Amino acid sequence: MKHTLSVLLQNKPGVLSRVTGLFSGRGFNIESLSVNETLDPGISCLVLVTSGDSTIIEQITKQLHKLIDVIKVSDMNEVDYVEREMAIIRVKAEANTRAEVLRIADIFRGKVVDVSPKSYALEVTGAADKIQAVIDILRPIGIQEIVRTGTIAIARAKKK
Fold it and tell me: pTM higher than 0.90, yes or no?
């Protein structure tokens, strides 16, 4: 089962390397990783997606807590949360396919961020399955290049 982990850690050189080393050293896979500063520039939020049963996720969480620069580890699967990913997809857009590419972008609430005589670069944001759906639909038209961010996630605010 996929798990999205949110890790608050000190924003210092080498911290990310220690976190990824923990995964590779124990044979765990990181499927997606995104890290950036929080409102406090001394603290970063690392969001990673990994797979495993509850025992493996518990072991990963315990190992992360042992790292000196880790402040907090949260398994987002234990709370209501919102996750997003972004992709920029360069797709062929010749005279006979331009309108179709624009329609697809519109359907998925994407936007054109670069235009050339023979291609469009589309920006699409959403859940990973939405990004994959866009890629699957654009593939027959001719995808030239894809760049994807990792998953980012935030817990939903409490309603009451």
Answer: no
